[in-house]
């Protein structure tokens, strides 16, 4: 019994070791209802711990007026002398309405979920975070045992009460970590529950992208999970709105398959079941049977549910490296007659066509697009193309753009760049770069245009010769509900 004997503990839900909090399902003896208790433990004589708990309780009280389906409603906040006996080793209790359903960690016990399922599950919680931040509130979403899955198939913050030091940025990181957990079965933030597998770390110090662990994860969803975990100083996502946009688009695209997730009521817990029929309530099914049906259905979706997205992306070459890291340039040298002459120290022409010594995919965020196909843009054949990946959102939603870097054997001063492309509406910039791996802000724009179908001539104004020219795509062309662009040929025209 806690809270002066009013609450009888029924079942343990987890521990948040970062703030010495335990989560319990309890019974309110006065009102005869189940509630969710976040019990903050510690020595009442520890002034530092007491101060941190007071901050948590203050935040919980401020959040009590916030109503959203993605957050359990706070009913009461208790402190020593106010519902808690002074001699107990309890510094505070946040009382919230109980959320029926199942634990988040139980949901992924049989393995990662399909991307559409993960998107639909996370949408209400992401919307709750965005709304709370607009109201000046922090929710505290960055621990998986604070989250439960409702019978309607939505994630909810079931044990509210943000840590004293938690910020709105931590809420966004929490969303990214939950998405990562749904897609991979691994937790990507410090302080997770014991026994839950942790996310692998890549050579650059960032978590390995979900797409690298499970190639069927869409590029956009993989990128948003990783970028939500990154610091904003290196391009991390700042708001829940950016996450919501991608989740909405993933769910909408997947809805065209006709497969919808529902949650049937089970005894004693509720579990997600996939079906194409209306949900039928059957309280005689056990939890074991429900989990078995879920595992079988999820396995089926891995083959069928994503076939539409895979057909769309079949012709794209996709790299499976991490979704973050330093600028990446993957070179593919395509020698030509002019190239061979330049390599042999022949003078580079100052007027007319100029052939680069090599061409590279220039990438500053996420995976490089078709990294081994850059040479198709200068092979002299307009029937072959370098292609971007197909995205659910146009640039710069997930990254600022993508491009090709042409490197010349000697500095050149260009007058024009002619791009042959079928992707009308694609916006490009011509930039000069001083090194092989510059940051985007270290490059200089010397021309820009919106591509027409066919040839587009872009005037270039260079004040001095340069050895590296970047064709940088800032906006792609619509392709149904997706975004993508192709570049068939690039011709560089020198000038005086």
Structural account:
The chain has a 6-stranded mixed sheet with strand order 1-2-3-6-4-5, with helices on one face. It has a 6-stranded antiparallel sheet with strand order 12-14-16-21-18-19. α4 (168-184) packs across α6 (219-229). The protein has helices spanning 47-63, 104-107, 115-134, 168-184, 210-213, 219-229, 240-255, 287-304, 307-312, 337-343; strands at residues 7-16, 21-28, 33-41, 74-80, 83-84, 90-97, 102-103, 147-149, 155-157, 260-264, 271-275, 328-332, 352-354, 358-363, 386-387, 402-412, 414-421, 427-432, 444-450, 454-459, 466-475, 477-479, 482-484, 486-487, 489-494. The protein is an alpha+beta fold and 496 residues long.
Short note summarizing the structure:
The chain has 496 residues and is an alpha+beta fold. 24% of the residues lie in helices and 28% in strands.
Relative helix content: 10-25%
What is the straight-line distance between the termini? 87 Å
Shape: elongated
Overall number of strands: 25
SSE diagram, text form:
Elements: E1 7-16, E2 21-28, E3 33-41, H1 47-63, E4 74-80, E5 83-84, E6 90-97, E7 102-103, H2 104-107, H3 115-134, E8 147-149, E9 155-157, H4 168-184, H5 210-213, H6 219-229, H7 240-255, E10 260-264, E11 271-275, H8 287-304, H9 307-312, E12 328-332, H10 337-343, E13 352-354, E14 358-363, E15 386-387, E16 402-412, E17 414-421, E18 427-432, E19 444-450, E20 454-459, E21 466-475, E22 477-479, E23 482-484, E24 486-487, E25 489-494
Parallel strand pairs: 4-5
Antiparallel strand pairs: 1-2, 2-3, 3-6, 4-6, 7-8, 8-9, 10-11, 12-14, 13-25, 14-16, 15-24, 16-21, 17-20, 17-25, 18-19, 18-21, 22-23
């Amino acid at each position: 019994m806690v809270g002066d004997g009013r609450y009888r503990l029924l079942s343990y839900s987890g521990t948040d070791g970062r703030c010495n909090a335990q989560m319990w399902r309890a019974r309110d003896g006065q009102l005869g209802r189940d509630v969710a208790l976040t019990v903050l433990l510690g020595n009442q004589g520890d002034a530092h711990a007491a101060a941190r708990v007071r901050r948590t309780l203050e935040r919980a009280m401020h959040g009590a007026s916030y109503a959203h389906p993605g957050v359990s409603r706070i009913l009461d906040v208790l402190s020593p002398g106010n519902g808690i006996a002074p001699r107990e080793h309890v510094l505070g209790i946040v009382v919230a309405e109980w959320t029926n359903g199942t634990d988040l960690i139980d949901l992924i016990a049989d393995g990662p979920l399909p991307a559409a399922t993960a998107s639909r599950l996370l949408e209400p919680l992401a919307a709750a975070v965005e709304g709370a931040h607009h109201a000046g509130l922090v929710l505290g979403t960055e621990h998986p045992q604070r989250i439960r899955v409702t019978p309607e198939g939505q994630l909810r913050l079931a044990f509210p009460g943000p840590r004293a030091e938690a910020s709105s940025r931590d809420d966004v990181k929490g969303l990214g970590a939950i998405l990562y957990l749904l897609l991979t079965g691994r937790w990507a933030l410090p302080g997770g529950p014991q026994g839950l597998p942790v996310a692998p770390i890549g050579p650059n110090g960032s978590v390995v992208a979900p797409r690298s662990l499970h190639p069927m994860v869409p590029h956009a969803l993989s990128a948003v999970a990783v970028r939500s975990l990154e610091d904003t100083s290196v391009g991390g996502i700042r708001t829940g709105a950016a996450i919501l946009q991608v989740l909405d688009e993933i769910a909408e695209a997947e809805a065209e398959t006709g497969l919808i997730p529902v949650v049937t009521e089970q005894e004693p817990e509720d579990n997600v079941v996939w079906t194409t029929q209306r949900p039928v309530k059957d309280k005689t099914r056990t939890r074991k049977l429900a989990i078995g049906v879920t595992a079988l259905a999820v396995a089926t979706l891995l083959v069928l549910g994503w076939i539409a997205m895979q057909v769309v992306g079949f012709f794209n070459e996709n790299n499976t490296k991490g979704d973050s890291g330093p600028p990446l340039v993957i070179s593919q040298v395509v020698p030509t007659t002019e190239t061979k002459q330049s390599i042999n120290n022949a003078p580079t022409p100052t007027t007319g066509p100029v052939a680069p010594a090599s061409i590279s995919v220039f990438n500053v965020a996420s995976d490089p697009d078709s990294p081994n196909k850059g040479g198709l843009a200068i092979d002299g054949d307009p029937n072959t193309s370098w292609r971007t990946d197909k995205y659910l959102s146009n640039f710069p939603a997930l990254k600022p753009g993508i491009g090709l870097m042409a490197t010349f054997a000697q500095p050149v001063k260009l007058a024009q760049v002619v791009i042959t492309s079928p992707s009308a509406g694609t916006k490009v910039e011509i930039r000069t770069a001083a090194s092989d791996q510059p940051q985007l802000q270290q490059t200089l724009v010397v021309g820009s245009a919106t591509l027409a179908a066919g040839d587009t001539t872009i005037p270039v104004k260079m004040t001095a010769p340069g050895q590296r020219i970047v064709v940088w795509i800032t906006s792609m062309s619509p392709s149904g509900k997706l975004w993508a662009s192709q570049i068939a040929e690039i011709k560089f025209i020198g000038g005086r």
